[in-house]
Amino acid sequence: MASGDDSPIFEDDESPPYSLEKMTDLVAVWDVALSDRVHKIEFEHGTTSGKRVVYVDGKEEIRKEWMFKLVGKETFCVGAAKTKATINIDAISGFAYEYTLEINGKSLKKYMENRSKTTNTWVLHLDGEDFRVVLEKDTMDVWCNGKRMETAGEFVDDGTETHFSVGNHDCYIKAVSSGNRKEGIIHSLIVDDREIPEILE
């Protein structure tokens, strides 16, 4: 009997830890960089059992058993901002299937290309800990290790500075015009008066 229930099978929402030995039908794994962190999405598709299981960061989000229709889609949310994600299951020939991931209605590739235009990301090591800082250019929100930071904006002679703290460290993102219309505004992260190089995700 096909199950139309979208809820997880664990009522307390605490799925037991999974292991790769149990994931015999694992068909796809994606790493998705969002503002709060890089999320790992895993998909199991049992073509003989009709099973579909979606894991986000190791936590079971969707489990469906005995799905007689082997193609279709599974939609779920990822991250602190509850970003919409959809796994599309398409038959390509006979019993071969193609699995594609969409984020906010765009293919993962298109989403990441657009994201590289709308965000800046820096990774730094402070006080023995790694930090991932993300600036969302459209909202000027700053995220650090999954938390939206409290910020204070300030106009300066050559642009703006968005100030925040990471632990006991003073940080700010400086925004200055490149002078080139195509390049636009250049954002730089300064921590303790030292510029941190940007990474490309």
* Widest sheet: strand ordering: 12-11-10-9-18
Total E-strand runs: 18
Whole-Å distance between the termini? 43 Å
Describe the sheet with the most strands. Answer: 5 strands, antiparallel
Radius of gyration: 21 Å
Number of helix segments? 1
* Arithmetic mean of pLDDT: 86
H and E order: EEEEEEEEHEEEEEEEEEE
Structural class by helix and strand composition: mainly beta
Question: Can you describe what's shown?
Answer:
- The chain is elongated.
- The chain has 201 residues and is mainly beta.
- Strand 16 (185-191) and strand 17 form a beta hairpin.
- It is built from 1 helix and 18 strands.
Tell me briefly what this model is.
This protein has 201 residues and is mostly beta strands.
Architecture blueprint of SSEs:
Blueprint: E1 26-33, E2 38-46, E3 51-56, E4 59-64, E5 72-78, E6 83-93, E7 96-103, E8 106-107, H1 108-118, E9 119-126, E10 129-136, E11 141-144, E12 147-148, E13 152-156, E14 159-166, E15 169-177, E16 185-191, E17 194-196, E18 198-199
Antiparallel strand pairs: 1-2, 2-3, 3-4, 5-6, 6-7, 7-8, 9-10, 9-18, 10-11, 11-12, 13-14, 14-15, 15-16, 16-17
Protein name: Fas apoptotic inhibitory molecule 1
Keywords: Apoptosis, Cytoplasm
Function: Plays a role as an inducible effector molecule that mediates Fas resistance produced by surface Ig engagement in B cells.
Features:
about 200 residues, mainly beta, five-stranded antiparallel β-sheet, 1 helix, elongated
